[in-house]
# Entry
Amino acid sequence: MEWFKNLYLSQGLEGKQEELISAVEKGEPPVWLYAVTLSISSRDLLDIRRATSLKKLDDQKKLPMIVGLSRGKAQAIGITARMLEDCLADRGDTCLRDYLRSV
# Structure
C-alpha cells in the first residue's frame, strides 16, 4: 500500500496514525474507518471508501495512494475540503493530484 507521507487525519485520529495504518495493512481496520484515496478514474480527483475494502484492492493491485483517514464518511468529506483548501492556498489552483505528489 502506498501512503501519503503527510497523511490527512480527521479530528480525533491524531496520534493514532501508525496504529490505523497497521490495522489497514493487516486487513483489520475498524468498521468506522474511511479512507480518502487518489481516484482510479481520470474524471475524479479523489475516492472515499470504507477502509475494510482497501486490502482487497491492494491485493488486486488496484489501490491508488491513500491520502487520508477519517472516522466516518462525513469526516472524509471534510478532509477532502481541507485538501482542496490547502492546495488552493499553496498553489493558487485546484490541481490536487499534482499538489499531493509535491508535498
